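Lab channel / #folding
Pinned by the channel admin:
"Please post every new chain as: sequence first, then the structure tokens as a reply. Keep commentary short and put observations after the output so the thread stays searchable."

First post following the new format, from NK:
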Amino acid sequence: MKFSRIFLNRLQNQASTDDTVVVVDVLRSFTTAAVALDNGAAAVYPVEGISAAAHRMATLDNAVSVGAVGGGDPVPGFDFGNSPWQLMQADLRGKNVVMTTAAGVRGLQRFRRARRLYAASLVCARATAEAIRASGAGEVCFVITGEWVDRDGDEDIACADYIEALLRGGQPDPQPFVRRVRNSDFGLRFSAGNWPHLPRGDLELAAHADLFDFAMPVESEADQLIIR
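Reply from TO:
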């Protein structure tokens, strides 16, 4: 199995779409999506942009909106922010979750033509590795979404490192990767306690390795991306 990395916010060549692309967003998009599914959501619909989310909401029954703008502030008028801790306390049974975020969702949309596409975070890292291995993938490209001009993105790099180590046949201790999530530039903002829309509870969830036993493959139906 061959491995490569793409950083979403750098100017560089596109990943090959011939095999498997894993879009990583630990803080917080794909931790939030995993919590939503574990809490009974029927599906998560990742859409790019607020207007696209509003349009998608109008086409779905029993839908709720989840979203954040760059920096993590919630989208005004949405049902929920991009907060896994908030969704842990929500009744999402049977709900269709329409999600738009500045990093993770944008990554999925950019690489939507991949032969296989996964949304990944630390909470479902081992399950993601197992699903990729079972698919017989020959090449895996990790898309790091959390690196920005003011953030090192190491929460996502750590997750990718952990999944890659598992795919290489190792049995790595997850705790060093957990510490990297906590000590990343963005992780430290959650633990500081002085960013009103970055609650410590989100970090506690996002830094819990292998909390869930399911992967999050991303499918396309009628040209709409869906995570189930």
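NK: The longest strand covers residues 2-7.
TO: also worth noting, The first helix runs from residue 29 to 38.
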